[in-house]
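Researcher: Sequence recovery benchmark, item below. Answer with residues only.
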């Protein structure tokens, strides 16, 4: 690949000299490939000189292929627009969208100093861009993106807003100002976005650099620890949205995190036991519901207790993840209805919402509630154990 610049030009073909630049002109339908040069300048509207229909379509496909071949080899490709078929094909391929202005805009703010001189002389935009850019070269005063650079393969693709009359492409006096100004900007800008530091660069350290790196490493370790803590809390909150077997497992893991021992027996209908002094002390059943708890769910726990030949006063805990499709915490935090509470008291069942269970954890973590006190309540009380971040209440009706 030659380092000589190439210009895709409506009528000129062959070598030319402009200021200190030796460059090559490639006209439409010529056999010379753009991919053999670097950098490449696509003058927007050049393809208009090709007859519409098959010939123009063929030219657009061919030059698009050459552009991306050049980018694969590491070339800088600069497109100056007005728009034509080639430009549209290139933008579509890299996922950049376009939309037009009502009138041509000249209120252009150049973000990259390398292009300042060029944009002051030739900048004008009738189109804005949207998409994923590697660099913004210029924008309008109200922040519409009108010039950008994007790394493609090993190369760099640049779109610049310069509205030029097609007839000016054939005026040598115009090109003597236009092309050298553009090439100087590309020469200064290309390495800035394209080059990467060599692999050995991190082997050299300035005296204070090592201490900064060490500090960053310590901060990263601390951040990792904090992230692990957050992930732990996120896992605890699974009881607020899991259901079925996953909910049972999540509640058991939650209790284990608080230091409450449990035992599961898959043979029987109840979900698991809470242990006290290594003995089965409380029968626990888990319900995941889209709505609120109903009397039927409470009665089922009583039936399971009888099936295990436990007395009517044997402690039974019903943990319910109610309103499982709630879209807000306010919608989730609905009370157990009085009828269900009275039923639970009548048959000696204690109800605990998963939201109450989360609040229990908060009270224990802040040392406002002891595990022993919680277990005593679970073994001895019935009704609804309603818990808020500020305290607990045993509701009987």
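Model:
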């Amino acid at each position: 690949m030659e380092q000589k610049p190439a210009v895709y030009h409506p009528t000129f073909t062959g070598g030319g000299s402009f200021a200190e630049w030796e460059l090559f002109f490639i006209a439409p339908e010529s056999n010379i490939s753009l991919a053999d040069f670097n950098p490449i300048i696509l003058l927007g509207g050049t393809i208009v000189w090709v007859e519409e229909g098959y010939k123009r379509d063929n030219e657009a496909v061919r030059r698009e292929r050459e552009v991306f071949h050049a980018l694969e080899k590491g070339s800088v490709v600069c497109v100056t627009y007005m728009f034509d078929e080639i430009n549209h094909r290139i933008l579509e391929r890299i996922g950049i969208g376009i939309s037009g202005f009502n009138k041509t805009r000249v209120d252009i703010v150049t973000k990259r100093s390398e292009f300042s001189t060029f944009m002051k002389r030739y900048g004008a935009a009738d189109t804005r861009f949207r998409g994923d850019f590697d660099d913004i070269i210029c924008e309008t005063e109200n922040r519409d993106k009108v010039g950008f650079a994007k790394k493609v393969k090993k190369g760099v693709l640049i779109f610049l807003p310069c509205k030029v009359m097609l007839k000016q492409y054939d005026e040598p006096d115009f090109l003597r100002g236009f092309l050298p100004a553009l090439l100087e900007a590309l020469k200064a800008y290309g390495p800035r976005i394209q080059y990467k530091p060599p692999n050995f660069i991190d082997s050299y350290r300035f005296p204070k650099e090592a201490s900064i790196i060490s500090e960053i490493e310590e901060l990263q370790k601390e951040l990792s620890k904090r992230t692990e803590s957050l992930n732990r809390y996120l896992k605890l909150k699974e009881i607020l949205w899991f259901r079925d077997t996953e909910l049972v497992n999540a509640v058991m893991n939650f209790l284990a995190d608080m230091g409450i021992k449990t035992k599961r027996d898959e043979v029987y209908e109840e979900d698991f036991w809470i242990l006290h002094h290594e003995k089965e002390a409380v029968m626990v059943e888990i319900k995941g519901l889209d709505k609120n708890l109903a009397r039927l769910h409470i009665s089922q726990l009583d039936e399971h207790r009888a099936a295990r030949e436990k007395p009517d006063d044997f402690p039974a805990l019903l943990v319910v993840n109610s309103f499982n499709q709630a879209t807000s915490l306010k919608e989730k935090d609905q009370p157990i209805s009085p009828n269900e509470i009275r039923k639970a008291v009548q048959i000696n069942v204690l109800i605990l919402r998963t939201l109450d269970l989360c609040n229990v954890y908060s009270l224990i973590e802040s040392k406002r509630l002891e595990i022993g006190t919680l277990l005593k309540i679970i073994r001895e009380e019935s009704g609804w154990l309603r818990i808020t971040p500020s305290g607990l209440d045993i509701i009987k009706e």
